[in-house]
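in:
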């Protein structure tokens, strides 16, 4: 079974990754959250293994956008990140060890 790493380096910056129950963004429950100023990614600990993987990819893409200083709206960023997440997961059928 794949174990979520505690930290990753993205473009030279260290990002921490935490499993947490009941993650909220603006008062709404969500599967994961990227805290850009803290360089912290939270993933809901109660998700299925597959959903944790998808959420990790999704949140890592948000972190990558932050590190590359791409200036796009929050709505556009979410659409781009979600589509790339599904593409990577489905196309490469990412295998986790």
């Amino acid at each position: 079974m794949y174990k979520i790493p505690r930290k990753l380096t993205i473009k030279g910056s260290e990002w921490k990754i935490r499993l947490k129950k009941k993650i909220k963004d603006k008062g709404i429950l969500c599967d994961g959250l990227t805290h850009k100023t803290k360089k912290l990614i939270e993933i809901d600990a109660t998700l299925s293994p597959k959903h944790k993987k998808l959420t990790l990819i999704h949140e890592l893409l948000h972190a990558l956008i932050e590190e590359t200083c791409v200036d796009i709206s929050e709505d556009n960023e979410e659409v781009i990140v979600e589509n790339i997440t599904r593409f990577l997961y489905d196309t490469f059928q990412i295998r986790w060890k």
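note: Helices lie at 49-67, 74-92.
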